[in-house]
Automatic annotation (TrEMBL):
PANTHER family attached to this UniProt entry: DUF393 DOMAIN-CONTAINING PROTEIN (PTHR33639:SF2), THIOL-DISULFIDE OXIDOREDUCTASE DCC (PTHR33639)
Pfam families the record matches: DCC1-like
Name of the protein in question: YugD like protein
Species, as recorded: Sporosarcina newyorkensis 2681
InterPro entries referenced in this protein's UniProt entry, alphabetically: DCC1-like, DCC_oxidoreductase
Length: 133
């Protein structure tokens, strides 16, 4: 398991879950490991990397540094298979502008995509290895 790049995600969010599945399918080299912001590992990593409590969507911990919002999303895209790595070019756009768009989606994600019910997708054994427990 790769602990150099850990994606923390909102475990209650359907959009976030879909995003994790999207990353897994486009990460054949297994660059990323995953943990929910709500579980014990996620809470410990938040504390260790001083991630504020009000951060409730995507976080990337990469080589000892935590990235949030659009910076996290773009750095993740940079490592994905296909043409997704080209999205990293948007890093030249000032973060204030990028984060406005990111915040709009993050603010509305529950309304648009809903929250998880009690049941959720069961990962395959190979996918399960990528989640930090």
């Amino acid at each position: 398991m790769n602990r150099n790049r850990i994606v923390l995600f909102d475990g209650e969010c359907n959009f976030c879950d879909a995003s994790v599945q999207f990353i897994i399918k486009r990460d054949p080299y297994r660059y990323f490991s995953f943990a929910s912001l709500q579980d014990d590992v996620g809470k410990e990593l938040r504390k260790q990397y001083q991630i504020p409590d009000n951060v409730d969507s995507l976080v990337l911990i990469e080589n000892g540094k935590a990235y949030t919002k659009s910076s996290a999303a773009l750095r993740i895209a940079k490592k994905l298979d296909g043409l997704w790595h080209l999205a990293f070019l948007f890093i030249v756009v000032p973060s204030a502008i990028r984060n406005r768009a990111y915040d709009y989606i993050a603010t509305n994600r529950y309304k648009w995509f809903g929250k998880k019910e009690l049941s959720c997708m069961l990962p395959t054994p190979e996918e399960r290895q990528r989640f930090i427990a």
